[in-house]
Input
Amino acid sequence: MNLNSVSAEIRPRKPWEAADLGILMARQWWWPLTRMWLLITLPPLLLLHCLPASLLWLPVVVMWWLKPIWERPLLYILSQALFGHLPDTRETLSALPAMLRRHWLGPLTWLRLSPSRSMDLPVSQLEHLSGAQRRNRVVALHREDAAPAGWLTIIGVHIETILLFSAYSLIYLFIPAELDLDYFDLLQEEAFWLTALQNTLYYLSMTLVAPFYVACGFAIYLNRRIKLEGWDIEIAFRRIVQARNGGANPSVDSGNGGAAATVGAAALCCALLLSLLPAETRAQADFEAQNRAFDSAEAQQRIEEILAAEDFHRRETVRFPKLFDDENEIDSPAEAFPPWLRDLLSWLAASFEAIIWALMLALALIIAYRYRRWILQLGRNGAAAAPLRRAPATLFGLDVSRESLPDDVAAAALSLWHHGRRREAMALLYRAALAQLVARGLELRDGSTEGECVRRVRKYEQPDTADYFATLTQLWQGLAYGHREPSEQQINRLCQQWRQCFGREQADAE
Amino acid sequence: MTDTGPTDDPIQQSAAIVATLRDEIKKALVGQDAVIDQVLVALLAGGHVLVEGVPGLGKTLLVRSLARCFGGDFSRVQFTPDLMPSDITGHAIFDMQSQQFQVRRGPVFTNLLLADEINRAPAKTQAALLEVMQERQITIEGESFTTGEPFMVLATQNPVEQEGTYPLPEAELDRFMLKIFIDYPQQDDEEKLVQQICGSENNDGFNLTQLRTLIKPQNILAMQRLANRISVDPAVLAYAVRLARSTRDWSGISRGAGPRASIALVAAAKARALMQGNTYITPDHIKEIALPVLRHRILLAAELEIEGVDADHTLRELLEQVEAPRQ
Output
């Protein structure tokens, strides 16, 4: 591992920032990753589609189950590319058998559903650890900053699902509305093309998500290692050494493998740390270093001393406002007020509370009043408010009760007519006719005009009565609105017919 | 009925003329009798009409046949999003020969103006009609010109396609005396219509050439004057005003009709009375015409609109409950 050739900036990141770096890596090498994914996964998928139609659900399950295997070449590419060498297809393919041979039982069985799969994969694949060693390592890695690995799996599942349903929707949008498809039947059908389409869509969404998933997991893993092993410090020291050597290539680490480099760097680290210490300490350290070696206990103690020193600590004073009274606190601000002021304040608070409640209540009432019609209609299941029906004793402002009418309407009208009170005569006839009709059950409303009365009468009464009422109405309208009096002959005929149509009933009523 | 009521001769004549006019238009436009009646009401009352209906119900045919039957000028403007106000009213152009500006009159100088799909034009073009509809005059380059007499605007709009349309502003809507809904014809009417059109020799299918020109524009003017003379009893007038006013404080109507509604109610009722040969108007005339007069002048409350209640439903309720006059 050559830290000088890392193409990303090596520094401790926050876990989600590390995931972001993963996204960046996946974007950077998207095509090599996707190409490899397709090369590895497409042949088995196509082969699986040779299964009989009843087993066509299997390809999706198999492809999903074998995901930890399919992800390995992607991780291989990423791990190489990050250190400055992007492997070509042939190289990856030749490395493939070694990758697949090792450590496949766990990931495909009890570890298959592990949410931190993406972060743990490098432990077995890159560090070649297995068994208890692997477990310890994973525990160490998970001690901090591992939460995003689990979330990553959850997000990945969601994105896969969203992509899948988006694809379905897209297809649905392209189906013309004229095509009358029974989608429910379609769902139950086991047609080859339909299942193949479903499989393909799921596979495509998997293809889109996989590189990002692997890259993010790798980046989180990497970040954890940077923090654990202090890669950034190592790189910083190397730069300093490089600068001190006047630009000469330190080449301590070139191709010697990770362990050697780490040891070298650790030595450098100690040396430089010591160089930063005050002169006396340094002198002493120099002296001791020259004269005797530390034993481990002593070394441990010294390390603890150094770690306890101020260089390794940072003191921060954080202030934040206190929202609630702490009972233990003696000098709370509330105590600073005199009791009368506290009483006043609490009284004010209580009043404000009461006012606010009153306002709320008033608002609720206003809203209820404003939308009363709507609320009432809701109660009546949407039926429009039926207009109230008036009692038929007074109709349209006319008194149509029996008591207000003379015994012999026709005779009374004729006598009024002959006395020159022609309008009153017509009004009496019309009013009496209406009263009779209402008594027979004619339903009239406030807004009913004379014409509507005639139409209703035509609907429910004998043709003779209806004709008579129509004529009466017309003459009455002519008099009332057109100011044209009917002739003597017409009024005589009206009175005669009134007796025929309504006289008998009136007699009965009497 | 024993008596057709007290009438004057000219009024009876007018009623007869309108009846023949109606029958003539019916020959071309089958199954839309109510619509024809309402358009004739507006013509006699000197008002303008907004016709709303889905395409293909004969809105344009109605106007063309009307223009043909009374022998007036007819022009049609297809409203489009890029139509300019001067495309309707006219404009002044510079004549190179005479070195003077000459006014070129727009299609609005006519008797019957069909504003087809009026809501497809933006508000500024719709507003070009404001002056001409109210004042019957057009101002071009500071000079006023009067339109033809009689003058009537028949605007059509389509209720279904709202994409890319501009709803008419209230001021414009208020200037239409009536808003008429044109609906699908009945089964037998439609059969008759199809038979008539498929059997015709003419290419466009509509036998407009068979329609006779029955009257002249001057006759229409005379009938309009006659309609104005129809007497109105104070009680009926009060009823019309009461109807218009009650829309203003009716629950379920957030903005009621203005005074133009009362005026239009009475004017339209007069025309209606004339068509029926009456010399006076009754509350029935007011009520018959109330829906087309009021439906475009009110704005329903939001909660009713959400429930899907339309203006007609609310107005019918109102007409049921506003007290009709009693003498």
Notes: The CA atoms of residues 9 and 277 of chain B lie 9 Å apart. Residues 1-8 of chain B have pLDDT under 50 and may be disordered.
